[in-house]
TrEMBL record:
Pfam families in alphabetical order: DUF8059
Top-level taxonomic group: Archaea
Organism of origin: Halorubrum glutamatedens
Protein name from the UniProt record: DUF8059 domain-containing protein
InterPro entries with a match to the protein in the record: DUF8059
Domain DUF8059: residue ranges: 1-139
Keyword annotations from UniProtKB, A to Z: Membrane, Transmembrane, Transmembrane helix
Sequence intervals crossing the membrane: 9-30, 42-63, 70-89, 101-120
UniProt feature coiled coil, ranges: none
Length: 139
């Protein structure tokens, strides 16, 4: 499942970069970028970076089984749902979809609360924060 998080993160960054280039074309043509496009772009970028981080944090904190699946599915749904609803609702005039933003935001919050629980209840050395036998070289 962490492959899904990492893959979704990198795909999200690629989509975010493509949207950024589109925004550049709009600006270069002398027009302002619509605020809804900027908001979706920013949210997708941040959430995609966090998806990649989550791809490493989930196994590092020992999240397994159905909880691991729940964290992954909830996070990916929120990662794409939040910017998607901004683009669809505001950008394409499908404003009746806007209330689903609470669903996508809630999915992200639940995912983060599960990770919070694992981070504070797991072993102190979970996540690689403890001492190591590795000695860095003198460069």
């Amino acid at each position: 499942m962490t492959r899904a998080l990492k893959g979704s993160g990198f795909l999200g960054l690629a989509v975010m970069m493509a949207v950024g280039l589109h925004q550049f074309v709009i600006v270069a043509g002398g027009s302002p970028v619509p605020p809804w496009m900027i908001g979706g772009h920013a949210h997708l970028g941040v959430l995609s970076i966090l998806a990649i981080v989550m791809g490493f944090a989930v196994p590092a904190l020992g999240v397994t089984g159905n909880v691991r699946t729940a964290v992954t599915v909830l996070f990916i749904a929120g990662q794409w749902g939040i910017p998607g609803i901004v683009w669809l609702g505001e950008g394409f005039g499908l404003t009746f979809l806007m209330p689903t933003g609470f669903l996508w935001g809630g999915a992200l919050i639940v995912s983060m609360l599960i990770m919070f629980y694992y981070s504070v209840t797991g072993p102190a050395d979970a996540g690689g924060g403890g001492s190591s036998s590795f000695v860095p070289g003198d460069d």
